[in-house]
Amino acid sequence: MTGPDRRTIRASATRATKKAALLQAAAQTFASKGYHQTRISDVIGCAGVARGTFYLYFESKTALFLELLDLLLIELRAAIVGVDVTSHISVEDQLSHTVRNILAAVVDNRNLTTIVVREAACVDAETDLRMARFYRRIVDYICCSLLEGQKLGLIAPDIDTDVASMCILGTFRQFMERVARSKTPSQMEVDQIAREMLQFNLGGIRARSGTLLTNR
């Protein structure tokens, strides 16, 4: 059996290139104009392709939007890794690395992040369902991690893991909004934010010494 000929390979590469151009153009256009204000003609104009080419890859503007959403969710899921308690790297350093990866994925996909923050909750029922499922998976992952941490004695046994998981997710979503509504933070700022988010979620806002702050 022979493999695909060069013509087939070139055709496949061309299709992939055109689809990538449409996705990139859509991300830019949706982020700048908003989902509802963007027309297919805006996307194909930005991508430099014909209208017929658009419909070879996407049946509608909504289908295009949902694929963009899926791409961001894939990026975010890939950034989440579990803690290896057998590693020589401390648990806190592992967690810090994971938080940095998640925040970096948000920054690297700023257009998509902007779309999610501004648009994903008001497109249609299917988009709402996909977002709800994604955030539910994130909460479940965090909750499982906290439960495992309790078994290992790393997390206080009296913590309500469901509530704590939602609070941790809230800090992450707040960062997404910051990226979407302001200038893109530098790598140094991302590292600092990751450290502060981790310290806050692990220790709350109590004084470092563990004593409560009082009015003087």
Succession of helices and strands: HHHHHHHHH
What is the first-to-last residue Cα distance? Answer: 83 Å
Structural class: mainly alpha
Using the CA coordinates, give the radius of gyration. 21 Å
As a percent range, the share of helical residues equals over 70%
In DSSP terms, counting alpha (H) and pi (I) runs of 4 or more, how many helices? 9
Number of strands: 0
Low-confidence stretches: 208-216
From the spread of the alpha carbons, the general shape counts as elongated
Q: What is the multimeric organization of the chains shown?
A: single chain
Strand proportion: under 5%
Largest sheet descriptor: none
Summed over residues and divided by their number, the pLDDT gives a mean of: 81
Describe this entry's structure for a reader.
The chain is mainly alpha-helical and 216 residues long. The N and C termini lie far apart (83 Å). Residues 208-216 have low confidence and may be disordered. It is elongated and about 60 Å long. The chain is built from 9 helices and no strands. Helix 1 crosses helix 2 (40-47).
Please give the structural blueprint.
Blueprint: H1 6-33, H2 40-47, H3 51-57, H4 61-79, H5 91-108, H6 110-119, H7 125-151, H8 161-181, H9 187-203
Helix pairs in contact: 1-2, 1-4, 1-6, 4-5, 5-9, 6-8, 7-8
